[in-house]
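Lab notebook: predicted structure, single chain.

Context: the supervisor wants predicted structures on file for every construct in the current expression panel, including those that have not yet been purified. This is the next one on the list. No modifications to the sequence; it matches the entry in the shared construct table.
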Amino acid sequence: MSVEKLSTTRRNLLIGAGVGGLAGIAFAGSRLVYATPEDFVADMTRRALPDAVIPEGVLQQFAADYVSELKGERLKSLGDLVLLSALVTTPGIEILLGTDERYKNFRRTTVTQFMIKSNFFASDGGKTARLEYYGYLPCGQNPFAQYI
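Prediction complete. Output recorded below exactly as produced.
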């Protein structure tokens, strides 16, 4: 039994780079196949509210409702973000687009919709009571009317 020493030749480096490239393409391709707008919206909302105690399924329910209400240019923009998130992940998008006003507005609008269509404020972010998603504004169209 002989032990061969692995040498660092140009051929071995090229083979290693090729295998690494193929693995990267396969990984990115699998992420593209399984990336959905609902998962992106749920992940973005969870990252925006790190201290909230959000039960399983609540964000998925919100994301499904939110995405179903989007139309036109906003839906197309969300599709572009989903493709980008499949390649660079949601934290990567935060780094890349964190200063873009359109992205910040989209993120702020999405998170605000979740907060006012759930009992987020009444339950102190899920800390004092179980966080529930209603799917509508419980106080009508004006979210501040319940405080009057």
